[in-house]
Amino acid sequence: MAPGAAGATGGRREGAVATTDRAPGGLADDRALLGRTSTAERVADILRTRIAEGFFPPGDRLAEDAIGKALGVSRNTLREAFRLLTHERLLVHELNRGVFVRVLAVEDVTDIYRVRRLVECAVVQGLGDPPYALHGLDAAVADGERAAREGDWPGVSTANIHFHHALVALAGSARTDELMRGVLAELRLAFHVVDDPRGLHQPYLVRNREILEALRAGERARAGALLAGYLDDSRTRLVEAYARRVADVPA
């Protein structure tokens, strides 16, 4: 989803994605989001979003000076943000080397899907009576279909992440939203390592629209069944592809 990043305990990094010393890559555009009361949590939120949208792929070294300058924050604030994201398993700190975007183990991918199924299916099952606020799902489906027409498969991946964010947001729970932001950012780390993004993402464009249309029709049970099958199939395909990719790369 070079040396990979460490597991949750900071042990041996998995996989081998080419490591770069990642420059801020547009983070200056996010500086305004910090406002006048910048905090480590808000810096972490910006970096988490950047990871989820693919700007910082697995194995990248995050350049402390460049990122701090781009966001206009102190070194202490940035280090606290790094600490928060390390706790979320998105980053790993290596002594005397720096902070890297984590590379997942196969077991991590399986666990991510276990959490997704528990949370996303529960959200759909817990919806009240229709109609539902589907504008976020509508926008994500349209963005994914447009990106596919343009052959922009990383864009399809980003739209897919946005679809599932919007789906979970139907619960109206800030705690669930926060949980899934981290889970889906981790998922994007797995997507990066797979070498056939079209084969990975294309089948789910149609399935996202099917879930959307079921919810639009007020068919909550059908939407839930579609989602459960979707997540099971996606887990199987991604774990198989990810395992092959990791096995092909020297430790």
Entry summary:
With 251 residues, this protein is mainly α.
Write up this protein.
There is one protein chain. By secondary structure, this protein is mainly alpha-helical. The protein folds into 2 domains: 21-101, Winged helix-like DNA-binding domain superfamily/Winged helix DNA-binding domain (Arc Repressor Mutant, subunit A, Orthogonal Bundle); 106-247, GntR ligand-binding domain-like (Four Helix Bundle (Hemerythrin (Met), subunit A)). 63% of the residues lie in helices and 5% in strands. It has helices at residues 31-34, 40-52, 64-71, 75-87, 106-125, 135-149, 153-169, 174-193, 197-216, 220-247; strands spanning 21-22, 61-62, 91-94, 98-101. The strands form 2 sheets. It has a two-stranded parallel sheet with strand order 1-2. Helix 2 (40-52) crosses helix 8. The radius of gyration is 18 Å and the shape is globular.
> Would you identify the CATH architecture of the largest domain?
Up-down Bundle
Shape: globular
What's the alpha carbon Rg, rounded to whole Å? 18 Å
* DSSP strand count: 4
User: How many H/I helical runs?
Assistant: 10
CATH topology of the largest domain: Four Helix Bundle (Hemerythrin (Met), subunit A)
Structural class: mainly alpha
Number of domains: 2
CATH superfamily of the largest domain: GntR ligand-binding domain-like
Spans of at least 5 consecutive residues with low confidence? 1-19
Helicity, as a percent range? 55-70%
How far apart lie the N and C ends?
A: 16 Å
| Average of pLDDT | 85
Beta strand %: under 5%
Question: How would a textbook summarize the main sheet?
Answer: 2 strands, parallel
Helix and strand sequence: EHHEHHEEHHHHHH
Provide the CATH top-level class of the largest domain: Mainly Alpha
User: Strand order of the main beta sheet, please?
Assistant: 1-2
